[in-house]
Design goal:
Elements lengths: L1 E3 L2 E5 L5 H10 L9 H11 L2 E2 L2 E5 L5 E5 L2 E5 L3 E6 L9 E2 L2 H17 L4 E7 L13 E7 L4 H7 L2 H12 L3 E5 L2 H18 L6 H11 L3 E8 L2 E11 L2 E9 L8 H15 L4 E8 L3 H7 L4 E10 L5 E2 L4 H4 L1 H13 L3 H11 L6
Parallel strand pairs: 7-9, 14-15
Antiparallel strand pairs: 1-2, 2-4, 3-6, 4-5, 5-8, 6-7, 9-16, 10-15, 10-16, 11-12, 12-13, 13-14, 16-17
């Protein structure tokens, strides 16, 4: 434990879960990823070390800050600390800037202790910016929700409402829940979609770990066509906000508009169950997925991902183009798309724990 003036800092354990989550749920800048469940799921599914920092007031013992983080040991690349892997955000939450800085320094010290190479913090721009500053950059898309699905539906433009109705007219249905059957049906769609996108998949055990640890704060929606799963998404909740880390549809059925029914099923559930902000997740400003999310009324918030070296100095983020990786990635994605689905599931499950994106 490290003490700074009247703040005590330590690595949080499972015993701290209730206090941690209570603090996260009431903090105005928190996300569903800040829940202790995310750290537990990472540990359960992939064996990485939980390194969340808990800040306590030395006088009262009350929580004054949390900083979720994971220690990843990556073959050939060594150790790194990430806040947080497999999602868009994971910055610290605190009562004030001093506590936040102390927790950041504490993580940097942990990194030196384990001879880590990099500390990555996936932050957001809390101040509102002119959209001219968003050009070619990653944003997350946030939608404020009214108090009912009825009010939400009436807020949509007629074109959007007709697309939702189109999916229903095409005979598509959806089911909500957290059963193993729904996990498997979601995974069937997700694995095929990720292969088609040229991207390695998470193992099915990762999603089971998410559902197990988030419990009632998680929900799966699966869209069916004649009994076949053709779309699926998972949301996680914290306090009055919800995030959708994964959503997939099978491209052969996209003409039936399964993605419209998928998102509507989850948005309407959230509006009717006390969620006031829905996080659609990461997109590149003005690109395809951005425009899809924008049509629902979501607004962009700039993501600000930063990496720090052993001395806690900011590492300059070179663009993919400068470092020459974008071409390599393109080739790898094209090869991956041609591989048999079963092979991509097995191989992806081996690779994915070490890919923090």
């Amino acid at each position: 434990m490290t003490a700074h003036q009247n703040t005590e800092l330590r690595v949080a354990s499972a015993d701290d879960k209730r206090e941690w989550d209570a603090y996260v749920s009431q903090h105005k800048d928190s996300s569903a990823y800040h829940q202790f469940a995310w750290l537990e799921a990472v540990k359960d599914a992939y064996g990485h070390t939980m390194l969340g920092v808990l800040a306590l007031c030395a006088n009262t013992g009350q929580v004054v800050g949390v900083f979720p983080a994971v220690l990843m040991t990556i073959p050939l690349l060594g150790k790194r600390i990430c806040s947080l892997p497999y999602c868009d955000v994971g910055y610290g939450l605190a009562d004030n800037g001093n506590v936040l800085n102390e927790m950041h320094e504490f993580l940097a010290a942990q990194m030196r202790n384990v001879k880590g190479k990099k500390l990555e913090i996936r932050g957001v721009e809390q101040t509102s910016l002119e959209t001219t500053q968003f050009e070619n950059r990653k944003v997350r898309m946030l939608l404020p929700l009214p108090k009912s699905s009825e009010a939400l539906l009436s807020s949509f433009k007629s074109k959007l409402r007709s697309q939702i109705r189109k999916a229903e007219k095409n005979g598509l249905t959806f089911e909500l829940g957290t059963s193993n059957v729904l996990v498997s049906d979601f995974y069937h769609v997700y694995a095929q979609n990720m292969r088609d996108l040229g991207s390695p998949v998470h193992a099915e055990k990762w999603f089971k770990a998410i559902i197990k640890n988030y419990g009632k704060s998680s929900l799966i929606s699966v869209v069916y066509h004649n009994g076949q799963p053709i779309g699926g998404g998972i949301i996680i909740k914290s306090g009055n906000n919800a995030s959708i880390p994964w959503a997939s549809t099978l491209r052969d059925f996209n003409r039936l508009a399964p993605n419209m029914l998928l998102y509507w099923s989850l948005l309407s559930h959230c509006a009717d169950n006390g969620v006031s902000v829905f996080d659609f997740g990461r997109s590149t400003f003005e690109e395809g997925t951005y425009k899809f999310k924008k049509q629902w009324g979501a607004e962009p918030q700039l993501l600000n991902w930063q990496s720090f070296d052993e001395s806690n100095e900011l590492i300059d983020a070179k663009s993919d183009a400068e470092s020459g990786t974008s071409r390599v990635r393109e080739i790898a994605e094209n090869i991956w798309r041609e591989l048999p689905l079963k092979f991509t599931i097995v191989t992806g499950s081996i690779l994915r724990p070490y890919i923090s994106l």
